[in-house]
Amino acid sequence: MTVAQPAMRKRLASMFMKAVNLALPPRCLGCGLIVEQDDSLCVACWSGLSFIRAPRCATCGVPFETDLGEAALCAPCMEERPTFNGARAAIVYAELPRKIMMRFKYGGRTHMARMMARHIRLAASEWLDAPGSLIIPVPLARWRLWRRGYNQAGLIARALARDSAAALMLDGLVRRRATASSGGLGRKQRFQNVRGAFRVAEKARPQIKGRNVLLVDDVMTTGATAGACARELLRAGATSVHVLTWARALPFKTLDS
Questions:
Q1: Peptide bond preceding 55: is omega within 30 degrees of 0, i.e. cis?
Q2: How confident is the model over 217-226, as a mean pLDDT?
Q3: With the C-alpha atoms ordered 140, 146, 151, 152, is the resulting torsion angle positive or negative?
Q4: How far is CA 222 from CA 76, 101, 186, 225, in A?
Q5: What is the C-alpha separation between 255 and 164, in angstroms, rounded?
Q6: How far is CA 46 from CA 17, 66, 211, 251, in A?
Q7: What average pLDDT does the structure give for the chain?
Q8: Is residue 246 within 8 Å of 90, Cβ to Cβ?
Q9: Does 251 sit behind a cis peptide bond, omega within 30 degrees of 0 on the bond before it?
Q10: Confidence band for 253, pLDDT divided at 50, 70 and 90
């Protein structure tokens, strides 16, 4: 191989990508407008996202209007602490994020996972960069996985693992049973719906024991699913469970997914 060959291949690859972009230009993941880069949003859609930053609840990550201190808890967490140790979401779940999420989950737009992972990293870089952490996605029911062809939480988890110090375990959790759709269910009904629905895979237990687990999902509403998964992971010996999601529903009563 001559010195010129790698440079030539790189030049040809660049020319090929330029040709592809001319024929199929990158489009905004929110509205479809032509943009400069793949897996990105136009200025209008980017401005339409509400990113969650401090101050926020030290446990569930819900944002506060005023800074109450790093250890401050929201009223629900003061009343009953969640099973998980902490949670972070990148953005507030509103109309535009809902539209993007529906395309991601049901429209086959699997490449959206890369954008979501970038947003999550901004919200929880200290957890993702902590040595010894283990990323595990919330599992789908078998029939939903078969019908959809992919687990959206698994795709986000995979994208997060590519750019973090954490290891990835896609099959650490399994569904004991299928659960009813959570759309339209109240808070108590959602917790009842997922009770006993998850278990830790036997082969995963040795790797989970003594580890900090980063539980990944697409959206958090009440935290019922995250709590049910965290309970099983802690029973399996995880030292802590922190939940990472792209979006967080606020307030719960205005949403139905």
A1: yes
A2: 93
A3: negative
A4: 10, 18, 9, 8
A5: 32
A6: 25, 24, 35, 21
A7: 87
A8: yes
A9: yes
A10: very low
Structure tokens belonging to residue 188 = 């108590």
Structure-block tokens of residue 222: 């009440």
Q: And the tokens for 170? A: 């896609």
What pLDDT score was predicted for residue 184?
60
* Residue 34 to residue 129: CA distance in whole angstroms: 34
- Contact by Cβ (8 Å): 152, 160: no
Quote the tokens at residue 169: 């375990």
- The whole-number pLDDT of residue 41 equals 92
State the CB neighbour count (10 A cutoff) for residue 24: 8
pLDDT of 43 over the 80 cut: yes
H-assigned helices in 68-138? 75-79, 95-106, 112-128
Q: Among 66-70, 175-179, 219-223, which is the least confidently predicted range?
A: 175-179
* Measured distance CA(120)–CA(241) in Å, rounded: 16
Instruction: Of 37-46, 151-160, 183-192, give the range with the top mean pLDDT.
Output: 151-160
Residue 60 has pLDDT above 70, yes or no: yes
Q: Which residues of 105-134 are buried (b: 16+ CB within 10 A; e: fewer)?
A: beeebeebbbbbbbbbbebbeebbeeeebb
Helix count and strand count (H, E) for the chain: 10, 7
pLDDT for res 143: 85
> Please, what's the b/e burial string for 53-80 (b: 16 or more CB within 10 A of its CB; e: otherwise)?
eeebbbbbbbbeeeeeeeebbbebbeee
* pTM (predicted TM-score): 0.85
Question: What is the residue whose two structure tokens read 């099983």?
Answer: 232
